[in-house]
Amino acid sequence: MTTVLETDEHKALRAAVAALGTRYGREYLTKVIAAGAHPDELWSEAAKLGYLGVNLPEAYGGGGGGIAELSIVLEELGAAGCPLLMMVVSPAICGTVIARFGTADQKQEWLPALADGTRTMAFGITEPDAGSNSHRITTTARRDGTDWILTGRKVFISGVDIADATLIVGRAEDARTGKLKPCLFIVPRDAPGFERRQIDMELHGAEKQFELTLDDVRLPAEALVGDEDAGLLQLFAGLNPERIMTAAFAIGMGRYALSRAITYARERTVWRDPIGAHQAIAHPLAQAHIDLELARLMMQKAAFLYDSGDDAGAGEAANMAKYAAGEACVKAVDQSVHTLGGNGLTGEFGLASLITASRVARIAPVSREMILNYVSHQTLGLPKSY
């Protein structure tokens, strides 16, 4: 297997995105959130520079790269304090699924617009009663002539208010077995019967969370993405990039917090020496750095396997990367806040809000416990407990 180290092109991409992120920074994102707005300026500039569509095919205006490149973009924006959460959803999940399985018309309609940032797409899988169990999804799709009728509910769906459409995971009856199988549908934001309600979150972000109701939403046959008999393959083709990109989001956030703490530890002097000279301060920060670097290595491995076409190998690595990055992020943020003491809880330093934000990587898009379940029975061969 080729060594999973970054190429010169990857390093150049990292440096270029870091420069973009530095021009915007945490202060920009904080102002956007406070105003209840969206980071449109950063999104548009990242798109014009080719960063948003770096994973999409060149034939449709993308960069022709993969999740390895897209994860670099999100990580570096996060390390600068201004991550774009919709990157996880629009180009990574939806763009990947359409690029791999969409019809020629779907590719032509969506991929150039996703690549240049002029259109975005949300992703709807989570349900109130299903949680992490995708086999319990109750949103159903039934045929009515050549049309499809979708009925169901979704919850914790990001960015639906700004998305032009939502890629909805439903279940349709298999004509041969009678069992329900997953299928993916593109649902336009203005489709009759498609309603959204914003969820009141303690987590304050630019991207809002929504509960969706699909009340007999009628869709044409061309709304179905790919082959209705290959829905599970298509679903996981989107979920593995989601986990890799969540890892990138977490690693970037952890790096940002750590950089603020390191600067403070170098400059803050008590008695004669900077507090960073004391091992009680220095060692936990060093451990946090090591954990973030290890998580990045697993993320790079997962992206390499996915971009190489090894879906099975990527599934294991993507779950491990998401787990490792979530844990590393929470620890890095916690230690960074603690390093600053009372200052870590002030608005001036902007770290306290990350305490809540960092938990997202442990919870979404799949909890760390479900990843441990996955590794237990898929990797270790232990029996299921459920």
Annotation, overall tally of beta strands: 9
Q: Treating each run of at least 4 consecutive H or I residues as one helix, how many helices?
A: 10
- Overall average residue pLDDT: 94
Overall spatial form: globular
* Low-pLDDT ranges: none
Description of the molecule:
The structure is a single chain. With 386 residues, the protein is of the alpha+beta class. It is 51% helix and 15% strand. The chain contains ten helices and nine strands. The strands form two sheets. Strands 1, 2, 3, 4, 5, 6 and 7 form a seven-stranded mixed beta sheet that branches. It has a two-stranded antiparallel sheet with strand order 8-9. Helix 4 runs antiparallel to helix 5 and helix 8 runs antiparallel to helix 10. The longest helix has 37 residues. It is globular, with a radius of gyration of 21 Å. The model has no long low-confidence stretch (mean pLDDT 94).
List the helices and strands and how they pair.
Elements: H1 8-34, H2 40-48, H3 67-79, H4 86-101, H5 104-115, E1 121-124, E2 140-144, E3 147-158, E4 165-173, E5 180-188, E6 194-198, E7 209-219, H6 231-267, E8 269-270, E9 273-274, H7 279-307, H8 311-340, H9 352-363, H10 368-379
Parallel strand pairs: 1-4, 2-4
Antiparallel strand pairs: 2-3, 3-7, 4-5, 6-7, 8-9
Helix pairs in contact: 1-3, 3-6, 4-5, 4-6, 6-7, 6-8, 7-8, 8-9, 8-10
Brief rundown of the structure:
With 386 residues, this protein is α+β, with helices and mostly antiparallel strands. The chain has helices spanning 8-34, 40-48, 67-79, 86-101, 104-115, 231-267, 279-307, 311-340, 352-363, 368-379; strands at residues 121-124, 140-144, 147-158, 165-173, 180-188, 194-198, 209-219, 269-270, 273-274.
